[in-house]
Amino acid sequence: MTVANTHDIYKLVRMSRDNGSNVIMTSWLEDRADTLTRWEMDTRYNMDYTVESEKVREGIQEIRHFFDVNGIKEELRPEFSDQKVREKLLSFFPKNFRPADDFEWNCYYQIYRKKIEK
Q1: What is the per-residue pLDDT across 3-17, written as a single tens digit (0 to 9) for each?
Q2: Rounded Cα–Cα distance for residues 16 and 3 (Å)
Q3: pTM for the whole thing?
Q4: For residue 8, what are the CA distances in angstroms to 12, 28, 100?
Q5: Which of 6, 22, 83, 100 has its CA 20 to 30 A from that of 77?
Q6: Of all helices (H) and strands (E), which one includes residue 29?
Q7: Rounded to 5 degrees, what angle do the CA atoms 21, 112, 115 make?
Q8: Residue 44: helix, strand or coil by DSSP?
Q9: Could you write out the DSSP letters of every residue in 33-72?
Q10: DSSP H/E element including 109
């Protein structure tokens, strides 16, 4: 599968679902995908862009909820104590690719969990 080079949250959500991802999208994230995409683009190119602090706090809280719902934590998932799990996950990536840290390993595990468990 080729992944489009995009920051469009809604497109990424659709791609995730269409390709069998195990990631559970929260309704808050789906409902605000367009807003988050605009924030990302606007803050990247507009140095004067502002967002209300309450909206930022709400966003941070909801992203934490998304991580909790999906079992994504900072510390490495216990499934990785089995070296075969790590090897199977790596088989889905280009030869020289390695996740940067435990958090990234956990994210990829959640995305590919169904394929790993086959």
Answers
A1: 667 778 878 877 777
A2: 10
A3: 0.69
A4: 6, 16, 23
A5: 6
A6: helix 27-31
A7: 100
A8: helix
A9: HHHHHHHHHHHHH-TT----HHHHHHHHHHHHHHHHHTT-
A10: helix 102-116
